[in-house]
Amino acid sequence: MSGWLRIVGLGPGSEQQVTPEVSAVLAEATDVVGYVPYVERVAPRVGLVRHGSDNREEIQRAEQALTMAADGRRVAVVSSGDPGVFAMASAVFEALEVGQVEWRGLDIQVLPGISAMLAASARAGAPLGHDFCCINLSDNLKPWALIEKRLRLAAEADFAMAFYNPRSKARPEGFARTLEVLRDACGPERLIIFARAVSAPDESIRVTTLEQATPEMADMRTLVIVGSSQTRLIERSGSKASEPWVYTPRSVGAESQASTSSRA
Amino acid sequence: MSGWLRIVGLGPGSEQQVTPEVSAVLAEATDVVGYVPYVERVAPRVGLVRHGSDNREEIQRAEQALTMAADGRRVAVVSSGDPGVFAMASAVFEALEVGQVEWRGLDIQVLPGISAMLAASARAGAPLGHDFCCINLSDNLKPWALIEKRLRLAAEADFAMAFYNPRSKARPEGFARTLEVLRDACGPERLIIFARAVSAPDESIRVTTLEQATPEMADMRTLVIVGSSQTRLIERSGSKASEPWVYTPRSVGAESQASTSSRA
Predict the structure, then answer these.
(1) ipTM value
(2) Name one GO biological process term (chains A, B) (predicted).
């Protein structure tokens, strides 16, 4: 039997958010390749070799996976969340493009996963319920000037915004600058959500405003969502009351639609 | 036992992309509420009442679901894809905000699903592998002028773009105007993907350029993705060769990174 390569998303952390098709691939694979903490989410078993590697080794990891698939192995490349959102799928295609010509005939599939932004949005309510954008704030991958340009254009377009990789020890300043740009472009009252470790035991969701937000509220396990001008809060009541719900109406002018309906 | 409300995503179509936590909710629910074709994806069983309703009745459907949960029922509101992306989650919160005060104490959770844009992106390769935006092209929900403004700003930001609801019988002109705006803002060579009925038996993926794209390539079952200036193709080879892979590198300048690594 010839080999294959599957680039799969494990979702944000809970096994309850791993799709059946991804579980089936992991059960059939001979090799699992990925960043160490993601590879460790796949249980060891006889016949499975787990190849964990460090962060920032994405291209080497992709070449390793393609080489093994070409050798007839059944290889699963694992990412957290969705593999197509700032994760391993693009790295594999980068390696494929410049790699051996015969790799282009390999049986390759990308299998989607629950992305961190969708999981975080669900926990908070529905802040991404209208038009939005998704930006990786790491300036390892692009110049800061491009990040700032995109932040300002996204604010002008009145998109809600989901931010990956807001802050790391190596880049302590970038997120402070992001908050400054957003306060300038969106005003101090704009809502911001810090969703940390979504679906893990230490999950936390914090809702505040740009005025109250500080850089320390984010780390590399935090997905940050900034609302559009239309995004708003609903206070919860009762014994389970915690953070308010945050949602963005589906349409510009949705308030009147809902009000009319409930009066009818 | 008191009632609850779960707003769940069924994914784009295949049962293999429904998460275990959503399947568990559907197995425990007393009532399933949603647009008819989505409700019909939940198999009938004793003890389950399926409440299908028409499109554009989202607010009435949300009020019905909240009322039943307040009456002690276990209610699942179902959306295709992810419930937080142009789907029922925002509609439920719109109804909650203007509805009965006691609804704010209800046990409500949103459970994410594989969104159409992530499923379509996976089938094509990794076109959303760098910064991107997501726009609903229906002008039922906002004025066309705002859509055009967002398209132009997204092009200036050099986002890849995912488009929901590109075209319907009631709005045959909007997508033709979208293509005109994009050709003007992005140039004729920019890549565009038409992903129709992803994960269903009649799935089709078509990759072309803005110059070659025509409005008839999209309908209401089509998710459209337009690449950024960096998005590119990899031709496949071998007996399974079909549409080329489409991907966006993770970083501005990724090509040199991959080339360097593969030479090492």
Answers:
(1) 0.94
(2) methylation
